[in-house]
Write a structure and sequence with these properties.
The chain is mainly alpha-helical and 65 residues long. It has one helix at residues 2-64. Residues 5-32 form a coiled coil.
Length: 65
């Protein structure tokens, strides 16, 4: 009976280590995802900013002429 208990405790410890490892992997993937999404948002912001700057420049040119 004690051997069975020790085996189960070993299995529990192994599973706890595996859970810890999986949590670390999830955290790493979430961090990679957040950095990737920030870069994606920045590129879309640039695409939105270019026409706005062009419109403002065009308005300034029309006012000066």
């Amino acid at each position: 009976m004690e051997e069975r208990l020790y085996d189960l405790e070993d299995k529990v410890q192994d599973l706890e280590l595996e859970v810890l490892s999986l949590r670390q992997q999830v955290n790493e993937l979430e961090q990679a995802k957040s950095t990737k999404s920030h870069r994606g948002n920045w590129s879309w912001g640039m695409f939105a900013l270019i026409p706005i700057v062009a419109i403002i420049c065009n308005m300034i040119v029309e006012l000066v002429d």
